[in-house]
Amino acid sequence: MSITKDFIVEQLKQQIADYKSEIKEQTVGRVIEVGDGIARVSGLSDCMMSEMLEFAVGKHTNSHELQKVYGVALNLEEDSVGAIILGDYTGIKEGDEVKCLKRILEAPVGEAVIGRVINPLGEPLDGKGEIEAKKFYPVEKIAPGVIARESVSQPVQTGIKAIDAMIPIGRGQRELIIGDRQIGKTAIAIDTIINQKGQNMKCVYVAIGQKESKIASIVAKLEEFGAMEYTTVVLAGASDPASLAYIAPYAGCAVAEYFLDKGEDVLIVYDDLSKHAVAYREISLLLRRPPGREAYPGDVFYLHSRLLERACKLNEKHGGGSITALPIIETQSGDVSAYIPTNVISITDGQIYLEPDLFYQGQRPAINAGLSVSRVGSAAQIKAMKKVAGKMRLEAAQYRELAAFAQFGSDLDEETKIKLERGKRLIEIFKQDLYKPVPVANQVLIFYAAISGLLDSVPVEKINEFENGLNKYAENNGKDILKEIAEKGELNEKLEEKMKKLIVDYKLTLDYISAN
Amino acid sequence: MKITPKQYVESLYQSVHNKKDSQIKSVIENFVKLLVANNDMAKADKITCQFIKIWNKEEGIVEAEVVSARELDKKIVKLLNGYIVQLSGARKVLLKQKIDKNVLGGVIIKYEDKILDGSLKMKLNELRNKMIK
What we know:
The complex is a heterodimer.
Chain A: H1 2-18, E1 25-34, E2 38-43, E3 51-59, E4 66-76, E5 80-86, E6 97-104, E7 106-109, E8 117-118, E9 135-138, E10 155-156, H2 161-166, E11 169-170, E12 176-179, H3 185-194, E13 201-210, H4 212-224, E14 231-237, H5 242-261, E15 265-271, H6 273-286, H7 300-308, E16 322-330, H8 339-347, E17 350-353, H9 356-361, E18 373-374, H10 383-406, H11 414-430, H12 440-451, H13 463-477, H14 479-488, H15 493-508
Parallel strand pairs in A: 8-14, 12-16, 12-17, 13-14, 13-15, 15-16
Antiparallel strand pairs in A: 1-2, 1-6, 2-5, 3-4, 3-6, 4-5, 7-9, 10-11, 17-18
Helix pairs in contact in A: 5-6, 7-8, 10-11, 10-12, 11-12, 12-14, 13-14
Chain B: H1 5-16, H2 21-37, H3 44-59, E1 61-68, H4 74-88, E2 92-99, E3 106-111, E4 114-119, H5 120-132
Parallel strand pairs in B: 1-2
Antiparallel strand pairs in B: 1-3, 3-4
């Protein structure tokens, strides 16, 4: 017993004797002014842009330790530094000491953050214990250049029929989801995350200024579908200061970049960037930067362009990873020509436009196929899907035109009537329930049924039932067909024949279809 | 055009530089008249603050502060003075002393916006952090 005690004492003595302290010169400044989430600091003559600062907040009540609050220098002025405060700023007083930390703002990254809910500084918010990240990535980073990139070639399967068919998204693409409040923008993003199970994708969901209750239910849903196994949630809630909302998407992107550097594919959702712009406007106005249109500062475009430019598809030489970004923008009563929506539309490679009218008519997801585009995604579609979707997109477009026209007259020729009927069925197929992503193979099957006219004999109101039944039937009797589509990704005549037979066989089992 | 306090101070420094006391008096009188004419009397406080800074910079004077647990004897103060001159590259150091029991031992040197913490308290804190790890 005494031996171990002596040993420990010896060790301690050794440690203390070995301890050498170094006196380091530190730059300190003093707080001259504190505002809502910002501070103006004097001194700090060698402070760098976006360097981390440490505020020593006045003595904590029951310990001698000083509580530490971090900040970031944003404005370097002639005789003061303007900084945002990341965290509780209520304890900071005029005259408090501020230290430069000589490092740029960083976020913890790595496998340890997967399945966790963290704040933009990498602190856990889910009560599952400390995050032991070995690596830190800078929050602000310049996007990969031309040499490192290649064009989009692989698809992201969202599992949403209307998107996968008409507005396909590729890995490394930036696709904007835009629409009014409460019409299912987040739902599309969550469905996409759920559908990434087994698709070799990591997901990051960045919630900016969202209600914590909404995030709690989203995390619960993701857990229910087993999607948290590959997802990180970065949360800057509605009650957090604007400074946290401002850095949240960059921190989320840093988490994604770790996997990108490992050559993996990542999907990142920014929900939503209009609140991000508002948070940045708040900070900018407090820091007295001159306001511009809609009181946003002059660099809001750069704010979003530098963020979305970090989404990329790297070539083999640079690891071959990708970051696919799905930014979300909330419009006010459908006004896409406001400042932030136009900015982000022009930055991204296409947009999914959600319309309230469609939503209330019962077409959910309420995607407006006419205004939604994907500029690069069609290169990434699998061949089988391209074959059926190309024809279908045309038919859907013709239907929209005819439907508007047919409202005026009742005398229509036979051909038009057929087109209208088929169009109605297509629209019916595009309806999809929440949290029910459809695998590609099943999508190809139902689209094939629609364009080859096999659905013409199914009543419009029965389409949904028919589709569900067909999927179940295929699960039992046509598993090899689905497997072949998913694996080969191509349709040949033999396969088409098999699909046709499967659908016809299934139709024979139904009693609501007339025998023609 | 608006004249900033800094611009005022720079021109004031130039005009009083290397002048006799009697001349300075009239220069300052003129300067105050100019401030009144430009309706800039409100900037007087800022101007005095700036003037001290610029004067110190031009004359090579550094204001420094030494915080210690006990009163320091003259020999040490002289040594410290020389040390700060070496560090900051100034010609003259105005040293202020401050006593704070909380530093336990050693000294903390502050000059310009730099701080050199050589206190026993900091060392003990650092040692504790190291031991915890």
